[in-house]
Amino acid sequence: MREELFSDGGLFVFLPFRYNPPRMSVSLFFALYCLEAGLFFIVVPWTRVWGMNPILHATPALLLLSVNPFVRGFISGFGVAHLLIGIKDVMRIAAARNGQAE
Predict the structure, then answer these.
(1) What pTM was estimated for this model as a whole?
(2) C-alpha to C-alpha distance for 85 and 91, rounded to whole angstroms
(3) Distance from C-alpha of 85 to C-alpha of 90, rounded to nearest angstrom
(4) What is the number of helices (H) and of strands (E) in the chain?
(5) DSSP H or E segment with residue 36
């Protein structure tokens, strides 16, 4: 077990070191990622940025797929799924925080 050294009025006291990682940070970052990715995938396929992507112009088949409204709708649906997951996680985190406060 790792110990840390603390000073108590000139005397040093060894206390056991306990690491308490923040429990909400990973969940919060995942929820924020899902919200951001969801908004990105919902909006970008319908903007001019989608049409100017050089990767989608690499082959004629990719170009035809990228301008197809069904493919754009599929990508937007993928974004809606991310957005719903992010909202659910934010609500779960808020409920867990409210439960701890009581």
Answers:
(1) 0.70
(2) 10
(3) 9
(4) 4, 2
(5) helix 24-43
